[in-house]
Write a structure and sequence with these properties.
It is a single chain. By secondary structure, the protein is an alpha+beta fold. The chain folds into four domains: about 90 residues, Phosphorylase Kinase, domain 1, CATH 3.30.200.20; about 200 residues, Transferase(Phosphotransferase) domain 1 (Transferase(Phosphotransferase), domain 1, Orthogonal Bundle); about 250 residues, Neuraminidase; about 260 residues, Neuraminidase (6 Propeller). Helix content is about 15%, strand content about 40%. The strands form 15 sheets. Strands 1-2-3-4-6-5 form a six-stranded antiparallel sheet, covered by helices on one side. A four-stranded antiparallel sheet has the order 12-59-34-33, with helices on one face. It has a four-stranded antiparallel sheet with strand order 13-14-15-16, with no helix packed on it. The relative contact order is 0.07.
């Protein structure tokens, strides 16, 4: 809603526009009733329809109105006009601190004075249980009379008030926005480390922000300012700000200590209250801000000590030189660096990097569903789609000459099928003989191709002929890369879902060995690529990028070197052809839990669109359990979100929780951790410590499901192993038995009436049904299945079709007919494994919609 001079908004007459920001437009207006001028903030039209912004706008109004302090802007009224919410505040004359800083740093006395006033204002807010969370120079207003006013509590987090004298309504009645786990609110450059990570935030985050502002006021430079947001994040998490004395030579030691304490990475080491910070700053102000004698004397003492050591140092010089050559030969060389993030794409869509020809980057689009391939300039730009042989085709890698993509026309999980060569500049795709697998790669000279089929590695001529087996490894092979000289192959495999390990074997099949064994437990190394000179093998591990030097004289036992660090997950490293760049995909993980209504054909948020998956309901439909994404903690609550309780804590990462029929326990499993096989746990719905269900079992245990009467639990072995089988645990006796004929199957699901157990084949291509009465298996359907769920009447099974563009399907167990429930053409799923499916008590599908971002970044690659 645009307003101009003379327009009226209730009793207020608009005089002029004062400004605009992300949360509203601000007008100067006259209050006809009281004869005073005020400021009016109105939510812009383009975000008016977004419910979360409306809630946050109301939160800003009521949070600020609950405060009455000379250093906080006064709020007079909150209301609506023509269904548009507005906020009426006192009119301030002056400028923001940001405007003032455009002219350079502030005098020390003025900076400390502003810091004291801001700390007092924050202290008043914190006592009411309100944390600002977006403190920055733009939100500090310098009134002409010398006062500081804190603006914009629009992203304030409402906490429990610690003011014993405050009325309960001051904080308890303030509305809150249920911030999704992992969601970051605030402004880069002024966020605390815990805020950047999306973790719990309290008043100490405001203290960190004020420390950054104090540093900026006296230096005139942004404390953590970097060229990109990624570098800014890294600076906040890992780097100490430049000493203020570098910009202000006569900087008082006391002020430097106060700022340093505000900017501690660990919140426990900062000032614990704004009042304490205000007291420290006031003490500095009273001392006159001129006490530098201690520092000057200390520096003089150091200089005298250095002078006395000159002679001794000279005497030792000759002796030191004797050892210099030996040290040089034996010293560990400094490692490569990857710095200066530059964002190349801005669509935020899921993607992976396949290779580069020097001028272009080649990408795989989507995760689930897969969406083919694309290319883009290495300098950045809009990706251009490359046609694939079919809707099921998944691109794997770029050919050495940059002319073709290797693709698998796949079904199942992971997609497996015929291998194709797809020209990137147009032309007809060509099937490579009879080769079939789930991954592959051309040799550096383009004459051979290595490919993986389940856990076996094969090599063949590039035409697809002359295939022969090289070796077998533990787990499914996920990616393959040749060494630059074509003599060796490195591959990563996953023996357990979500855990990857590297293997190396010669091109003749000899000298097979596991790389980096025991480096991380459980192993999490994948997706490696050699630099063109063969000096480094760059890969991803624990969401960051690492470089493994080639073995040689200086690296007899090479150790990985960490290249990146920060809250953004990085993957798909591709070294540039010029040896100066490293390309990666940066991922910010977040989802929105959505329910699909088949009657209205509309999606609606469930549990306030929390970022969570693996949703399960109690038998009476009154309670729900879920696992937050990406943190991986198990929670339970009522279906309306009330009575919420956290049941597990990191590093445990629960999977697929299931309520017991009596509603007293929840089963879940956790994949292998710390070298321990995948285990099933049970936990009380009232909280407590998780207990292993079958502690004596040495085998992998995953995906537990209760029998309808709660007397048994069906579960599977390692889904990545073809010899996995389905077992049944009897709760009363503790006896474990195998389900006949279930070898190679996983993902068991007990039907509501107890008669059937549904399951999947090892490659997820067949949906099977075991009839407990007859003791026989029947095949219900073929395709690419995932995340099985029984309908509540037990007549159908729902699943995710993980081929093509993806869909939710169901198959009736009587007619064995598969039918579509929901197409996912315009719905991008996310989650720990790309997507999951759950059913509401009325069988409405629940899906986690992608709300994070994935973009390509270029880093400068520097070798020692």
């Amino acid at each position: 809603m645009k307003l101009g001079p003379g327009d009226r908004l209730g009793s207020y007459e608009i005089l002029s526009v004062l400004g605009a920001g992300g949360m509203g437009e601000v007008y100067r207006a006259r209050d006809a009733a009281l004869g005073r001028e005020v400021a009016i903030k109105i939510l812009p039209d383009f975000v008016f329809t977004e419910p979360e912004r409306l809630v946050r706008f109301e939160q800003e109004a009521k949070a600020a109105a609950a405060l009455n302090h000379p250093n906080i802007v006064a709020v007079y009224q909150f209301g609506t006009y023509e269904d548009r919410p507005y906020l009426v505040t006192e009119l301030l004359e002056g400028e923001t601190l940001r405007d003032r800083l455009y002219h350079g740093p502030l005098p020390l006395r003025k900076a400390v004075d502003y810091g004291i006033q801001t700390a007092h204002g924050l202290g008043a807010a914190h006592k009411k249980g309100i944390v600002h969370r977006d403190l920055k120079p733009e939100n500090l207003f310098l009134v002409k009379d010398g006062r500081v006013k804190i603006l914009d509590f629009g992203v304030a987090k409402i906490l429990q008030s610690d003011d014993d004298d405050a009325p309960i309504a001051d904080s308890a009645h303030l509305p809150t926005v249920d911030t999704k786990p992992g969601v970051v609110l605030g402004t880069w450059g002024y966020m605390s480390p815990e805020q950047v990570r999306g973790q719990h935030v309290d008043q100490r985050s405001d203290i960190f922000a004020l420390g950054a502002i104090l540093h900026e006021m006296v230096t005139g430079k942004r404390t953590f300012g970097r060229e990109t947001s990624a570098d800014t994040i890294s600076a906040i998490l890992h780097h100490e700000p430049a000493a203020i004395s570098q910009a202000v030579p006569k900087m008082p030691v006391g002020l430097q200590r106060v700022v340093n304490r505000c900017l501690e990475k660990n919140a426990d080491q900062r000032f614990q209250s704004a009042s304490d910070l205000a007291f420290a700053l006031e003490a500095l102000s009273e001392s006159g801000l001129t006490s530098t004698a201690t520092r000057v004397e200390a520096e003089a003492t150091v200089k005298r000590a250095r002078k006395r050591t000159v002679v001794a140092a000279a005497a030792l010089g000759i002796l030191a030189s004797v050892f210099a050559l030996g040290y040089w030969l034996a010293r560990p060389t400094s490692g490569p660096k990857a710095i200066n993030y530059v964002q190349l794409t801005h669509d935020g869509q899921p993607k992976s990097l396949l290779g580069t020809d020097g001028a272009r980057l080649f990408l795989g689009l989507g995760t689930f569903p897969y969406q083919g391939g694309a290319e883009m300039p290495t300098a950045g730009g809009e990706p251009r789609v490359i046609a694939m042989p079919s809707a099921h085709a998944v691109p794997l890698v770029l050919s050495p000459d940059g002319s073709s993509l290797l693709a698998v026309d796949g079904q199942g999980v992971p997609p497996s099928g015929p291998l194709w060569s797809v020209p990137v500049t147009g032309g007809s795709p060509r099937r490579l003989g009879e080769l079939s697998g789930q991954t592959g790669s051309w040799s550096p000279d383009g004459r051979m191709i290595a490919y993986g089929k389940h856990n076996e590695l094969f090599i063949a001529d590039a035409s697809g002929t002359g295939s022969r087996k090289l070796c077998a490894v533990d787990g499914d092979i996920n990616s393959i890369v040749w060494s630059p000289d074509g003599q060796r192959l490195r591959l990563d495999s996953s023996q357990t879902v979500g855990q990857h390990q590297f293997w190396e074997v010669s091109a003749t099949g000899s000298n097979q060995k596991q790389l980096l064994a025991g480096w991380h437990v459980p192993p999490d190394e994948c997706c490696g690529r050699w630099t063109d000179d063969g000096e480094y093998f760059v890969f991803q591990s624990n969401n960051q990028i690492w470089a493994l030097p080639a073995a040689g004289f200086l690296h007899r036992s090479p150790v990985p070197i960490q290249l990146t660090a920060g809250p953004m997950s990085l993957s798909s490293p591709i070294p540039g052809k010029d040896g100066k760049k490293l390309f990666v995909v940066g991922d910010v993980h977040r989802g929105e839990l959505m329910r699909y209504d088949s009657t209205t054909r509309q999606y609606s948020p469930f549990l306030a669109a929390i970022s969570a998956e693996y949703v399960a309901f109690s038998k009476d439909g009154q309670w729900v359990a879920y696992v937050t994404y990406p943190e991986g903690t198990l929670w339970r609550s009522k279906v309306d979100g009330s009575e919420r309780m956290q049941l597990t804590y990191p590093p445990m990462y629960p999977m697929l929780p299931r309520w017991s029929p009596d509603g007293k326990k929840i089963l879940f499993f956790e994949f292998e951790r710390a070298g321990k096989p995948s285990r099933i746990y049970e936990i009380s719905t009232d909280g407590g410590a998780p207990n292993e269900l079958i502690p004596s079992d040495p085998n992998h245990e995953v995906d537990p499901n209760w029998s309808p009467d709660g007397s048994k639990v069906v579960f599977a072995g390692n889904p990545s192993q073809s010899n996995s089988e389905i077992k049944v645990f009897e709760v009363a006796s503790g006896k474990v038995s195998s389900l006949p004929g279930s070898q190679g199957m996983f993902s068991p699901r007990w039907s509501p009436d107890g008669r059937y157990i549904g399951a999947l084949s090892a490659d997820s291509s067949r949906l099977m049904l075991f009839d407990i009465q007859s003791g026989k298996w029947i095949e219900l359907a073929q395709g690419s299945f995932g995340w099985l769920s029984w309908s509540h009447d037990g007549q159908s099974m729902y699943f995710l079709d993980q081929s093509g563009k993806g869909a939710v399907l169901r198959v009736r167990i009587d007619g064995q007919k598969s039918e579509p429930v929901l197409a996912l053409d315009n719905f991008k799923t996310t989650g720990r494994y790309g997507g999951s499916l759950a059913l509401m008590p009325d069988d409405s599908p629940l899906l986690l919609r992608e709300a994070g971002t994935q973009d390509v970044y270029a880093l400068d690659w520097e070798k020692p």
